[in-house]
Structure formats: structure tokens, C-alpha cells
## 1
Amino acid sequence: MLELRLVQGSLLKKVLEAIKDLVTDANFDCSATGFSLQAMDSSHVALVALLLRSEGFEHYRCDRNISMGMNLNNMSKMLKCAGNDDIITIKGDDGSDTITFMFESPTQDKIADFEMKLMDIDSEHLGIPEAEYHAIVRMPSAEFSRICKDLSSIGDTVVISVTKEGVKFSTRGDIGAANIVLRQNTTVDKPEEATIIEMNEPVSLTFALRYMNSFTKATPLSSMVTISLSSELPVVVEYKIAEMGYVRFYLAPKIEE
Amino acid sequence: KGVQLIITEFYRST
């Protein structure tokens, strides 16, 4: 028996919009810790890890650890039927091949349930150890989204370099080249407008912009994004979900031939 | 323009 009641149902809607273009089918895992997912894109270049902690739900009942295979496009279709202010409850019965999403309007005058078929997904689960990163950049998520979009009109890849000068996003394409440098800026009115650069060592890595742009679909989840870089590791682009957890995207770098 | 690495080259199956 599974029953997860999320008062801020819009969070789940936003999570699905953030990941459904990157991953088609995925297993959602439910345990005492929370509702989570780990999945790679079809080419195994990017990985998404989601955690919605059990404490973030108004009611969280998960009698035993369970993994439920879902088609994210179908799940998104159903969640789009929930209002932005609706309370969403996810319900499942042991051994059932379906899951139910219940949507309640804030005034309780409309209650809908949508039953979705589950699927068997044979997916590989990866262990991602805690790592020391050479540089961690915290910046407004809308600014990161803007940079990725702007650069992708010039080139296909972005070089992200962190030095003591700041963080530089560079691209090059048939029509020319572009460089965008952000300096640390903590003298802003609101903390969510700050750019904070922690650097242990200078680092420079190249990534496919197509994936970066896909990650920025998570922008509505958080006003800030954290980009963690290390020369031997995939970049981690993290959007924190207030009070609940996170969506983290891991992207393997491109290297010189 | 370079070789695209894949995630499974970095992290192991559990």
C-alpha cells in the first residue's frame, strides 16, 4: 500500500516537465526516505536523479520499498490535468499494475482520479559517490537558462571555465564565437539574485548544449541552480526543490579527440 | 568536435 499526499501538487507537475524530454521511461522508487528516481537518457550521456523526501509530503505511507515503472510522457499527460493549486495524492496497491493520481481542488469542491498503467522497465541503477568538486557555481537559474539558450544559437557545445576571475561560458560555431563571463556578485538585494563562485582549483570542461538546454526545463522548480565541476567527473546541475529535495542532472563531458 | 563520454564510464552499477 502506497499513499503520498503532496499539498503543493504543482511541484510534481514541474518535476515532470523538467525531466520528461530527457527520459522516456523510468522507475520511480518509493521508500521510507522518499519518492525518488534515477534514470539515464537513451544515449547514456546524461543522468537525472530526483528526490522528494517523505517529510515534504503531508501524508506519506509506503509499507515496503517499491519500484514503479512509468512512461513519463503518459505521467505528464495525467499531471497536466491537475490544477496548479491542486493537492495531488499518489496511490498504489501491492501487486497492482496501475497507479492512481488523485487531484483535489484547494476548496475540495472538485476531486478527480486518474489511473495510469505501470510498465516493467529494466533499468541500470548507478552508484554516485559523494565527490569533492574543483569548483561550485551558484547562480540564478533564469540566468543560467538564458546563457544556455543564447549560446546554443551560436554553437553546439559550451566550455565552462572557472578561474579566480569568475565563470566563463564559451561557444564557437559557423557564424562566430561567444563568451559570457559572470563574476561573483553577492551585493544584491535578494539572495536569489546572487552569483557565488567557490573554487578550489581552476577547471575547464566542454559539454553538449543540447543537454544543458534540456536541464533548464527545471528552472521553474528553483530560483537558483548549482553547477558543480571537476575535471575528471560529469558536471552536476542541481535544482533544489524547496523543503523537499532536488532534481540533479549529471552530464558527461566531451573530450578532445 | 571532441568525443562525447558517457555516464557509465564514471559511475558503477549498484
## 2
Amino acid sequence: VPVFPWHSLVPFLAPTQSD
Amino acid sequence: APSGSSLPAYFIKGSIIQLADGELKHVEDLKTEDFIQSAEISSELKIDSSTVERIDDSHTHNFAIVQFSVGEHRAQVSVEVQVEYPFFVFGQGWSSCCPDRTTQLLELPCTKLSVGDVCISLTLKNLR
């Protein structure tokens, strides 16, 4: 049975750094 | 197993998810605290609050563009997702643009994602 890491479930929304 | 969606298998009800402390839970049993505590343990990832600002599902069949305001700097980020894609809303749980479709395809209990909902998202702890 596969086990998935918790962070797979969360979208990775990385804002572009403006500075 | 349910079929008809190309979303990853970990969103299907009954999938086993490992938290950062090693605990195993079914995807449908996850709580807000599970994500927060896992991120606290993580050395690389942190939780950001992403507020839904706009949902546009009028253009492409079965897809929606969700616009978020991310983090304390309120950065604008748009993502295109299948309407059944579940986001985890703080204090509420799994929510999608089309909860009926999420429940049908993934058997994952789900509520309707709405403008103003605050979703859990991840960023890197150090953006360098």
C-alpha cells in the first residue's frame, strides 16, 4: 500500500520575490 | 478505485498520508493541525495562508483558474486546476470548485471552495 508524504497534498504557492 | 480523474492517487479517499512526525492518517481524516504541526517539524517548508480572491471556471471545460493572495505580502498567484482539485481550507477541510465532482471521482468529502476562503499552501522557509 503506498504511503504519501503530507506535503504532496498541499499546493506549493511560491510568490515571486520582488526584491 | 474511483476513476475518471487524472488527479494524483493521494487525493482518493482511503489514501494513506504520512505526517512529518511519522503518524499515518487517511487523507479524509486530516485536520488543519496536522498540516501546521508537520510544517513546524519541517526544516524546509512553511505554511502560508492563501486567500481565494477569484474563481474563474467559465473558459475551459472541467478546469478553473483560482487566484490567491499568498502570505503576509499578499502576493497574487493564479493556478489552473481541474474543478475537482481539492484545496485544504483552514478550520474547514477539503474544498473544491466542484465538490460534487470531487466526491464522485475521488470519494473525498468536500465542500464548495468560495472567494474569501483561506487555504493552506506551502512555501520554502528560506527563499535564497
